[in-house]
Amino acid sequence: MRLTEGQVAVVTGAASGIGLAMARRFAAEGLKVVLADVEEDALKRAAGELADDGARVLARTVDVGDRDSVLALADAAYDTFGAVHVLCNNAGVGSGAEGRMWEHEPNDWKWAFAVNVWGVFHGIQAFVPRMLAGGEPGHVVNTSSGDGGIAPLPTASVYAVTKAAVVTMTESLYAHLKAERADVGASVLFPGPHMLRTGLWESHRNRPERYAKERPRRTPYRSLGQWEAAMKEAGHDVAFTPVEEVAEFVVEGIRARRFWMLPASEHSDRQIRARSASMLDRADPSYLESFILD
Predict the structure, then answer these.
(1) Catalytic residue (choose from 78, 159, 211, 221)
(2) Interatomic CA distance for residues 5 and 30, integer angstroms
(3) Whether the predicted model's global pTM rises above the 0.85 cut
(4) Which domains can be identified in the chain, with CATH numbers?
(5) Which strands form 184-189's sheet, in the order they lie side by side?
(6) How confident is the model at residue 224 (pLDDT cuts 50, 70, 90)?
(7) pLDDT tens across 48-62, in order?
(8) Catalytic site includes residue 159
(9) What is the DSSP letter of 190?
(10) Are 47 and 59 in contact (CB under 8 A)?
(11) Which of 31, 22, 275, 16 shows the shortest CA–CA distance to 148?
């Protein structure tokens, strides 16, 4: 797909991190950008920054876990710009779950699924029919993660399950678009190959009351800075991928109509091979053993 001046890109989770980087990159290509985020103040700052740089911007406060909120976003995008060519279902949260899976609070799962899974589906349902009806080339990018999308990190199992669901949803979307012989492509994005400095670690700040925790956490939430300090104290160097590199990878992937937006990584390749071998051999998932908690 060619990205050309005047096209329209919609990005959820666009007020910071990967989402904002993608919005900036699309704007640099001359696209009009629709920014959606649940965090109103950060969204205003992001929209103002892009507008000051000359981009045509529409910003909407959106809870992607609320179907009506996403449908209203689609109405606003089409009312303002008349078309949508690129849709990036990028909004995501952690879960705040602690301990073993059977100890998790149901609201931890409900919140993570509302944003990470239902949010993607709501975006597909709100925009894809209109993109198809418009008859122009288009592309949908759904953000997954190596945690779940490739193999789960048991210490973050709720998040992993949601991101595995995003992969399967995107595979299904790809098949449905092909069956329609549509000029709309689909991709699943694995940000990386290293850690990213995003607001995901502090996503609890935007947790809605309807998914409030039912009991206090046994341990306080840990910020990315605290985690990084603990890793360094333990003698582990942590590499980070700039969000700008992820955004560039997305643009390149859209142009190439690449389904798997999966950056080259020996670690990821080892996980993929180990998981595939485990399935083909009908063997235990030994690739998880290095992550299993004591």
Answers:
(1) 159
(2) 4
(3) yes
(4) 8-263 (3.40.50.720), 266-294 (no CATH)
(5) 57-61, 32-37, 8-12, 86-89, 138-143, 184-189, 260-261
(6) confident
(7) 999 999 999 999 999
(8) yes
(9) -
(10) yes
(11) 275
